[in-house]
Amino acid sequence: MAPRGDGLLNHDLLPGEKGPQDACGVFGVWAPGEEVAKLAYFGLYALQHRGQESAGIATSNGEQILIYKDLGLVSQVFDEIKLNALSGHMAVGHCRYSTTGGVTFENAQPTLGDTESGTVALAHNGNLVNSAELVEMVRARYGEQTRGELARGNTTDTALVTALLKGKKGHSLEETALEVLPHLRGAFSFVFMDENTLYAARDPQGVRPLVLGRLQRGWVVASETPALDIVGASFVREIEPGEMVMIDADGLRSTRFAEVERAGCVFEYVYLARPDTTISGRSVHAARVEMGRKLAQEHPIDADLVIPVPESGTPAAVGYAQQSGIPFGQGLTKNAYVGRTFIQPSDTLRNLGIRLKLNPLREVIRGKRLVVVDDSIVRGNTQRALIRMLREAGAAEVHVRISAPPVKWPCFYGIDFASRAELIANGLDTSAIASSLGADSLGYITLEAMIEATEQTRENLCTACFDGSYPIPLPDEDSLGKHLLEPSRSLGAPEDGLNSISVSQGGETALEHP
């Protein structure tokens, strides 16, 4: 697998240990008179946790679309000069974690494509499950691709949608989108635009979040509410499942392309979303604190100190401490900058494992019976190393509490877990997992208690990674997978490499070299 965009940056506490990787972040803004590229930059900055492999922004001035994208963090890809070059009154932006297609420049977003009425720039959060079917649809409608994203070697489901948005002769992008969207299966929160109109659309299940905000002189759409906050937009509402919103000089319009079959991702509440996000009216931080309280009710223990695994375990640890009456403490210090280096650790440093990112506060934990709260266990290697480190630092007992049920099933809707065979909960029961980790005890929250903490009904949530119940039907196994579109690029012959900056106008794409 190719390295991540900035070398090593990820959420994993152990080098090479694959945890649940986030979906992507999308952002769109329509605001004449504002510096829309800078608004998009800061919006993506607020969404960086959702994807760290690549970043991109496209802008429109009403006549042409300009786009800049590259591998790396938002702060690495953009600077003042690049942002100033992206002029216009409207922008779409994206930060990526790959769920279909590898980590390559060709797969960075927004994608760019010709349409019958101009050009489209598209940013996608989620993952489609009928990509194989869409490949045949592109071929049947438009033949072999000799230009555009697919011809350039883009192997993502987003590139397929971009190709399908070309549309029939005489059709507007709006008409084409309303015809194409009902054919898509899986999770999608789209933000896209042509030269004059900003669009946002969400799948009928509403798997991934997408929100609408109001600026003094415009509108904003984003994956999470903190992206509205950072640009000074007020929250208006969520984009509804099965809804497409259009924003242009005439204002905001909305239409429905599918009936609501709500199944929002429960893992957004557990881990993916920022704690200061609100989803379906529920504060994510409040949900995580409540998960900790319920965890303490379901798995009490006599202990001296509750400590979180920073940062994702902190709200649940606060709730556990509140409910149990056991003092809360910071027993672990996290290096905020680790991962932002291109230097691979030596074998000696690699063997230290988790100490590259976390270090114990020995005077806090020495001789204490600890409750260690984390959000999930995937393979278990991280927790095993953490427990060993805590014992070496003098912990008398280590009791692990997890604010999510055992993860037993892969996600096909935009989260990249380890394979089912690698998930520790599939091979061992709870007591055996505790023994494997070296913990004195282990307790997972129940599915029912976790759902109660979200204040959503079970029917309105996707819990597939915990119970294997997939709300969107899946195709055969050979039609799924992150690299589904990579072995054969038969939709078109690769073009010459696309430079990072491109300009499109009137449906014709020309390249500019920076």
Automatic annotation (TrEMBL):
Residue intervals of the Glutamine amidotransferase type-2 domain: 24-250
CDD domains recorded: GPATase_N (cd00715), PRTases_typeI (cd06223)
Keywords, alphabetical: 4Fe-4S, Glutamine amidotransferase, Glycosyltransferase, Iron, Iron-sulfur, Magnesium, Metal-binding, Purine biosynthesis, Transferase
InterPro entries per UniProt: GATase_2_dom (IPR017932), Ntn_hydrolases_N (IPR029055), PRTase-like (IPR029057), PRTase_dom (IPR000836), PurF (IPR005854), PurF_N (IPR035584)
Cofactor(s) needed by this chain: Mg(2+); [4Fe-4S] cluster
Cofactor note: Binds 1 Mg(2+) ion per subunit.
Catalytic activity: 5-phospho-beta-D-ribosylamine + L-glutamate + diphosphate = 5-phospho-alpha-D-ribose 1-diphosphate + L-glutamine + H2O
Residue numbers annotated as active site: 24
Listed pathway(s): Purine metabolism; IMP biosynthesis via de novo pathway; N(1)-(5-phospho-D-ribosyl)glycinamide from 5-phospho-alpha-D-ribose 1-diphosphate: step 1/2
PROSITE patterns given in the database record: GATASE_TYPE_2
GO molecular function: amidophosphoribosyltransferase activity
Binding site for [4Fe-4S] cluster: 265, 411, 462, 465
Region feature Disordered, mapped onto this chain: 481-514
Binding annotation for Mg(2+): 312, 374-375
Entry's EC annotation: 2.4.2.14
UniProt similarity note: In the C-terminal section; belongs to the purine/pyrimidine phosphoribosyltransferase family.
Functional description taken from the UniProt entry: Catalyzes the formation of phosphoribosylamine from phosphoribosylpyrophosphate (PRPP) and glutamine.
Name of the featured protein: Amidophosphoribosyltransferase
Lineage: Bacteria, Bacillati, Actinomycetota, Actinomycetes, Micrococcales
Gene: purF
